[in-house]
Amino acid sequence: MGAGLGRTGTLSLKMAIERLVGGSCYHMLEVFEHPEHVPMWQQAVDGDTPDWDALFDGYVAAVDWPVAAYWRELSERYPDAVVLLSVRDDAEAWWRSANATIFEAMRREPPPEMADWYRMVTDMLRRFNEQWQDAEASMAQYERHNDDVRATADPDRLVEWRPEELAAR
């Protein structure tokens, strides 16, 4: 179960997991491919537990947003799952990447067919950090999120992964 936020190497991680275990790994890309999942994620954002088993039917793992926003709930639902925390060591590097991609996209008006997805993501981002467009507030929340995962996930289940480590090899 991915606890790492988007822009921490989650797409590479998704592809690696799929190759290693031979099954599908859930990622924000899946939400684009399955618009029927948006109401279930909106249900989670609104504080109601969706049918996690139905949502993840056919998947062997999950990383990235929106999964990372619910890592705690999902780790409770799937007590045998590894809690995979992907991180960038530098919060400012994470901010620059997230701001130039995810947050930039969220500042634009969505096409009508993406309105429900857009609402779900902006609501999820506000749940993460009410001031998600503010660099300092987002970097601080990024650090708090990672520290919270490290402090509260079962240490026997927690695996921390840094994409920078691969790039350095």
Key terms for this structure?
single chain, 169 residues, mainly alpha, Rossmann fold, two-stranded parallel ribbon, 9 helices, globular
Radius of gyration: 15 Å
**CATH topology type:** Rossmann fold
Number of helices: 9
Helix content: 40-55%
Mean pLDDT: 95
What is the CATH superfamily classification? Answer: P-loop containing nucleotide triphosphate hydrolases
- Main β-sheet, spatial strand arrangement: 1-2
Query: Main beta sheet, described?
Result: 2 strands, parallel
Q: Can you tell me the number of structural domains?
A: 1
The SSE string, one letter per element, is HEHHHEHEHHHEH
CATH class categorisation: Alpha Beta
Outline, from the CA principal axes? globular
Low-confidence stretches: none
Task: Please provide the count of β strands.
Answer: 4
Q: What does this protein look like?
A:
The protein is mainly alpha-helical. The protein has a single domain, classed as P-loop containing nucleotide triphosphate hydrolases (Rossmann fold, 3-Layer(aba) Sandwich). The chain is built from nine helices and four strands, in the order αβαααβαβαααβα. The chain has helices spanning about 10-20, 30-35, 40-45, 50-55, 70-75, 90-105, 115-130, 135-150, 165; strands spanning about 25, 60, 85, 160. The longest helix has 18 residues, at about 135-150. It is globular. The protein starts with 9 loop residues before the first helix and ends with a helix.
